[in-house]
Write a structure and sequence with these properties.
The protein has six helices and five strands, in the order ααβαβαβαββα. By secondary structure, it is α+β, with helices and mostly antiparallel strands. A five-stranded mixed β-sheet has the order 1-4-5-3-2, with helices on both faces.
């Protein structure tokens, strides 16, 4: 009790602060240069996203289905070598345990990067999805998305030693300078 009386003596000449009954809300908040910059950056980022791949409904593919796709103009021998795994993958993308949205972004960026680096044959590991409630969902998305990307000339399910029905071999377009080099090389062989 002694402490209580001492506290009361010390606090005797203190006047309490006046508390407003309501909190004042400023409409719209304060516009700062940083806030405006962040808003412009967010709007620009949304506008720059060239990824047109969608996570809307796609045709379902079974977890153990062997899939393939080839654009017109791809030589049968080239597609046959791709199917049989004769081209060693130059890069690999593993999409296991990714959501559809994550896979959409990663696949798009992977194909863009590989095209920029002039890679021709790559591998995408999408998994079979046989342990999930909806079997083959990611596999279905990846197969559908690959047909939409103009850089993808062909794809086929991988050989068992590369993942079988849970992976794809993907053939990408040659860069314009690589096509020109091939033309020159074959023209020089004819003239020799």
């Amino acid at each position: 009790m002694k402490d209580d009386t001492r506290f009361d003596q010390v606090m005797a000449d203190v006047t309490p602060l006046k508390v407003a009954e309501r909190v004042a809300v400023v409409a719209g908040g304060r516009q700062t240069p940083g806030l405006e910059r962040r808003r412009r950056a967010a709007a620009a980022e949304a506008a720059v996203d060239a990824n047109f791949l969608s996570i809307d409904h796609v045709p379902p593919v079974g977890p153990y289905d062997i899939v393939g796709f080839v654009r017109p103009g791809v030589q049968h021998g080239v597609y046959g070598k791709l199917r049989r795994g004769r081209y060693e993958p130059q890069a690999t993308l593993d999409l296991h345990r990714r959501s559809a949205e994550q896979a959409r972004r990663e696949l798009w960026q992977f194909v863009e990067d590989c095209s920029e680096c002039q890679l021709r044959t790559v591998m995408v590991l999408h998994g079979k999805g046989d342990r999930s409630p909806q079997a083959g969902v990611l596999k279905s998305y990846v197969c559908h998305w690959c047909t939409l990307m103009p850089q993808v000339l062909a794809y086929h399910s991988a050989q068992p030693y590369h993942g079988g029905a849970g992976a794809l071999y993907v053939l990408l377009k040659k860069a314009p300078q690589a096509r020109e080099q091939n033309r020159e090389r074959f023209l020089n062989k004819r003239h020799d």
